[in-house]
Amino acid sequence: MQIAILIFEKLTALDAIGAYEVLRSVPGWEVRFVGPQAGLVRADSGSLGLVADDSIDQVTEPEIVLVSGGEGSRPLMNDERVLGWLRDVDRHTRWTTSVCTGSLVLGAAGLLDGKRATSHWLYLDRLREFGAEPTSERVVEDGKVITAAGVSSGIDMALHLVNRELGEEAAQAIQLAIEYDPEPPFDSGSPAKAPKEIVEAVARVAAAGDEWLGASTGSET
Amino acid sequence: MQIAILIFEKLTALDAIGAYEVLRSVPGWEVRFVGPQAGLVRADSGSLGLVADDSIDQVTEPEIVLVSGGEGSRPLMNDERVLGWLRDVDRHTRWTTSVCTGSLVLGAAGLLDGKRATSHWLYLDRLREFGAEPTSERVVEDGKVITAAGVSSGIDMALHLVNRELGEEAAQAIQLAIEYDPEPPFDSGSPAKAPKEIVEAVARVAAAGDEWLGASTGSET
User: Fold this and answer.
1) Which of B66, B84, B92, B106 could join B111 via S-S bond, C-beta 3.0 to 4.6 A?
2) Which one of B149, B176, B183 has the shortest CB-CB distance to A179?
3) Which residues of chain B have pLDDT under 50?
4) Number of residue pairs across A and B with CB atoms under 8 Å?
């Protein structure tokens, strides 16, 4: 099984690496990090460099494709070369997947039309622009498309995917191997659970740095 | 606040990136990825390259140091240059931390003597060799040393650390920003929770690829 994880300038690194760590643990599964161009990309913080060993032109028939999210996913939504690649690989994939705002790139490629899908909670409504039905679940499977919520959800999505392909024991073994027994110190990981003032503060900070989101939240206030 | 995350050949990438994604989200906190040498390192899978922007010689007084784990942490336990660096930086840090088998490197540097500490569950007992008291909790704070359990636990550890430094609201905001509302499909993330046959299978596979662990589990059977 060949898995192509799309990375790019200003991605959110955990989007890709959470899922990667699960998928790379399956014997016989080969993960390739692919970029619009081969070579180094910097994550959104600026302090982390990741290497795309291949360009998208070099990986044409992965069985699984995963699109990462983050600030850098925005320009990809108008990048016809990347969108065309996604449409092409989707014709052959067993699973077409995303983490965080990677789903907006799948949407821009036309791959979410009529599908239930999710994204980072701040961007969930934007899925409608691509004919998708926003769904605030952590992992959403519709046909062969699996979308995941924000950032850390890639871990859950990848375990879900291993379970679907290889069954419960394989997924349980990997969960144990990466000791994924989460104990966040608080229960504020979703807008439905976090205190209202925290939700507002995070939305405000995000909007201040993001024109698209700024326009969106601005229209509500 | 300057944070040095030690990465190296054959690290387990999620050890570093889970914690990084939390810590880099704090305004004013600067994460530096440092290696024994500056430059590219390959993660344990072989399929991922990460860049250490600095060598350990270039980052001498971080307020927080974090040692990643994975197969590549083993040779570091005999690398006097790295161990000396850890002892040196520990004299100035506010927090000295590790994820997964990174705690064994802290132990080899003599920094866990007499302390409660944790590690990946498969390697927990090895902490005794360094005078530490193995503790099967997910995040263990003893003085200024914080150790975390296997791989994915770095996310929890980093949120704990943000809470300790900046309080509950900062930690909650970052948890929400990375949408850390975990929903693993199974409850098998620790040896206490996973089915016995899964625990045995994972231990067997790990031991087959790991001489140290092989010797350890071999002595029990």
Assistant:
1) B106
2) B149
3) 219-221
4) 226
